[in-house]
């Protein structure tokens, strides 16, 4: 079952005989309709959320998961998917997106610190960015206004490392502000490479900071991979995960279907 690209569950239907092609098409449509209905019902009951969880979430993780607009989206122009790890005890990492008729707005945020303090800091940042975006502010204004809100609350003692993006759907032009640690990789064909961006100050460090967007262009079939610093600092048996291993993993995924939420 899916709702606009977001996988919500598996629908099992029994049959005493093989399905015809027309029947399979009808079942696929039923699955889409049921997925859409389930998406609406999700916000009105805890039943489905309880069924999905295997363990109890930390309070910080509860805040972060509820802050998400969704786990995936797909239409004729693009598809996206995101996930928070470790799922049951995530701290300050989060992503946010909004689909408009002519562009996709996307942010990836990492609040400093750990646990509930990091989650609250990220919640403030995401709320400030959404408020600015919904008021019609451009990319630079969104970052500046969120920066001021975080600084007013924390006085520069805490900050959020954030990637703020706008992707124009007509021509694939990407406008982006790199205000911290989230890394951006571009997979084009068999080649994968980091997108060179000027790193600007994380949100909340200094008042009245001016943020200037940069831009680059996407081509049909390109895949953007965005990760927070947790991927680079996570330890593995052979040492840190690091940029090289991430690029190898991205390259191996080039023949995989377009991403779906897990």
Short summary:
By secondary structure, this protein is α+β, with helices and mostly antiparallel strands. It has helices at residues 21-42, 47-52, 59-67, 115-134, 139-154, 229-233, 242-252, and strands spanning 2-3, 6-7, 72-74, 79-81, 93-99, 103-111, 160-168, 173-179, 183-188, 191-194, 214-217, 223-227, 235-236, 239-240.
Determine the mean pLDDT.
Answer: 87
Query: Which residues sit in consecutive blocks of at least 5 with pLDDT less than 50?
Result: none
User: What is the radius of gyration?
Assistant: 20 Å
> Structural class per helix/strand content?
alpha+beta
Largest sheet composition: 5 strands, antiparallel
How far is the N terminus from the C terminus? 12 Å
Approximately what portion of the residues adopt beta-strand conformation?
15-25%
How many E-type strands? Answer: 14
Helix content: 25-40%
General shape: globular
Question: How are the strands of the largest sheet arranged?
Answer: 5-6-7-8-11
Series of secondary-structure elements, N-terminal to C-terminal? EEHHHEEEEHHEEEEEEHEEH
Determine the number of helices (DSSP H or I, runs of at least 4 residues). Answer: 7
What can you tell me about this protein's structure?
The protein has helices spanning about 20-40, 45-50, 60-65, 115-135, 140-155, 230-235, 240-250; strands at about 1-5, 5, 70-75, 80, 95-100, 105-110, 160-170, 175-180, 185-190, 190-195, 215, 225, 235, 240. The chain is of the alpha+beta class. The longest helix is centred in the N-terminal third of the chain and has 22 residues, at about 20-40. The two termini are about 10 Å apart.
